[in-house]
Amino acid sequence: MGSVSSPTASPPDVGVVIVAAGAGVRAGPGEPKQFRPIHGVPMLLRTLRPFTSHPAVGQVVVAVPAGFAERPPEWLGKLVGDRLCLVPGGAARAQSVRAGLRALPSSASVVLVHDGARPFVSRETIDNVIARARGGVGAVAAVPLHDTIKEVVEQNRITRTVARERLWRAQTPQGFPRAMIDEAYARVRKQDPVPTDDAELCERAGFAVEVIPDTPHNLKVTTADDFRIAEALARELR
Predict the structure, then answer these.
(1) Is there a cis peptide before residue 105, judged by omega within 30 degrees of 0?
(2) Which fold has domain 14-237?
(3) Which DSSP string do the residues of 74-111 spell out, in sequence order?
(4) Cα separation values, 105 from 4, 60, 220, Å
(5) Which of the chain's termini has less CB crowding within 10 Å, N or C?
(6) Preceding amide of 173 cis, omega within 30
(7) How far from each other are the two terminal CA atoms of the chain, in whole angstroms?
């Protein structure tokens, strides 16, 4: 994957919204999945570190489940300060992102949105997303699809094979000029279909959005099987 020079600014001009308000029911019973350890380190802590340590990032806002903003786990509460704050998330992803955007200072002219359940994002990917967003377009970390894709209807019947040459799997972070993502959310109406990510809102609003080639290591940890994969990956990357 190609690299650009590490983007820095003085003062930092990037605000980050970490979406970590889900219940994580597909991961099985227990505490919210984002608080569970991966190789001894809470998943959300692994997710936060590349952003809180980035020189271009001035503020990180974490949208957490209801009740946890006031009573976070001890390890998370210790991080709260001038550079990191917690906000209550909503029932839907878009509600959590809205809450995060409201908490970002006006000095954040570039906004990154990242899944709290993606604990292995690389510094290179973050840098490349920031660079494109600073260039005035939306930027989505993504990987091209290599599997054969089937469209399936009732009773598991395959109706067609979908051409994959132009298909990419969207990941995060997704980066945007602040004015772009604010405008995209301002245009959302109650009757609109629920967006699956923030890039979709910007696409609907007519803004330019591009993919940034990423690595499959930046997986989203959702199920119990994903946790087993993440454990192995954490051992390999340490």
Answers:
(1) no
(2) Spore Coat Polysaccharide Biosynthesis Protein SpsA; Chain A (3.90.550)
(3) HHHHTT-SSSEEEEE--SSHHHHHHHHHHHS-TT--EE
(4) 27, 10, 28
(5) C
(6) yes
(7) 21
Length in residues, the chain: 238
As a whole number of angstroms, the distance between CA 17 and CA 111 comes to: 7
Find the angle CA(106)-CA(109)-CA(111) to the nearest 5 degrees.
105
Write the single-letter amino acid at 167.
L
Per-residue pLDDT 10s for the chain (238 aa) are: 555 555 554 689 999 999 999 765 444 456 789 999 999 999 999 999 999 999 999 999 999 998 999 999 999 999 999 999 999 999 899 999 999 999 999 999 999 999 999 999 999 999 999 999 999 999 999 999 999 999 999 999 999 999 999 999 999 999 999 999 999 999 988 888 888 999 999 999 999 999 999 999 999 999 999 999 999 999 988 6
User: And the tokens for 228?
Assistant: 């087993």
Alpha-carbon gap, residue 171 to 122, rounded angstroms: 12
CA 178 to chain centroid: 16
Copy the structure tokens of residue 102. 């409201």
